[in-house]
Amino acid sequence: MILSCAFSRCASSLLIVALLFMFGCESGRQEDNSNSDAQLNSASLTPIKVTEVRRGAIRSWMSATGNVLAIRESRIGTKLSGKVARIFADDGDPVEAGNALFELEQDDFEIAQDLARHGLQAARAQLAAAKIGVENTEREFNRLQSLQATDAVSQQQCDAASDAYRTAQASLASAEAAVSVAKDALALAEYNIKQSTVRSPISGHVAKRYINVGEMLSLLSPIPCFYVIDDSICKVEASLPDKDQSRVALQQETKLTVDGVDNSEFTGRISYLSNTIDPVSRTFTVRVEIPNPDGLLRPGAMARLRILLDERNDVPTLPVQCVVRRNGSSMVFVIRSEVAFAVPVGLGLSGDDSVEITDGLALGDVVVLEGAESLEDGTRVHIINPRP
Question: Which of 10, 87, 203, 219 is 20 to 30 A distant from 106 in Cα terms?
Answer without folding.
Answer: 203
